[in-house]
Amino acid sequence: MMMKMSKLILVSVALVWCLGEVVQGFTYDDKELETEQGKMAMFERWRSHHQMEEINEQKKNAQYNNFKNTLKLVHSTNKANKSYKLELNRFAGMNLEELQQHTGFKSPPGDCPKKQDEAKANRDGQPFMFRNFTDIPPKLDWRTKNAVGPVKNQQGCGSCYAFAGVEAVEGLHAVKNKQLVELSPKELVDCANVGGCNGGYFTACYEYIAKHGGLTTMKNYPYVPKVEPCNLQKEKDIAVEVHGYENMPSPGIEEDMYKVVANQPLACCMEWNENVSAYKEGIFDGDCGPKIQHAISVVGYDQTADGQKYWIIKNSWGEGWGEKGYMRLARDTGGEGRCKIAHWCAYPTLEDTGTKHKDEDIIVKGQKDL
Fold first, then answer.
1. How many structural domains compose the chain?
2. pTM, two decimal places
3. Which end of the chain is more exposed for a tag (fewer CB within 10 A), N or C?
């Protein structure tokens, strides 16, 4: 009985710790920055706060050097009069190569300067079902319309593309069926042969879903951050079907993003660096280049009381990152947008790619509720 009670206490303490980290991030005093000893003590406290695993001395020294670089970035940014704040989150001890293990977007074939130039010359000729859509509200948040599921955590698997793709399908299904169903990114990682944990792109996910006939639920096929043999039995248990997708016209512009997001959540790629990895809160309008390497979901847009406009970005790094898993990214900045958010976006459609768009083509397992 005593042993069971001890285990229960330990589990409870761990749960409180994890929940507390979501609510309250790591903080420090400026005096700790004055000496190397103070920085080292802060580093150890940071490791304890984020429950870092024990590592050897060589790795720990490397982590400490990365931590100090992030500390310098966070401190200088937060002392400046910017519209956003950074923090020493669990990524603060990682270098760029390690951070990339938590991203995972790879450009699709043909996404090169020559192809982009060709596309630019033929933007109006590219398929775009929302081209003439004009009923765009001044603000929109699909979270308030039960079209966005809980924030997930891809962990150290380069599967952001799978999460972004799944969330766009969940959003379309919820918008059309008034029913939010959490779908399985793990099925895409294991079964779709589109990149696993080594990165991929979301249109390949849409193609798999259309050809396979649909996607199963998160509950049926839960996520773990590694590639495993495809569970063929679970793969057959289809919960939601969509039959195609469209790319937003390329090269992307924010004006077209509005047309899509006004109708459904949108999967996009964006530039991602240590500034974005350390994001805590506010309207991010800082440097995020030079490389497009992460896939996210755009689930709405709004503006602050003083007129700062932003996109609502859903990330796949858990609720401990950013604003409980979300970022407010500056919008209407021209061209492809801040962090090149409009560079390449794509969304699932209800029918086979290239056919007329028919609402009745979406199917829920066991019903057709439209």
1. 2
2. 0.88
3. N
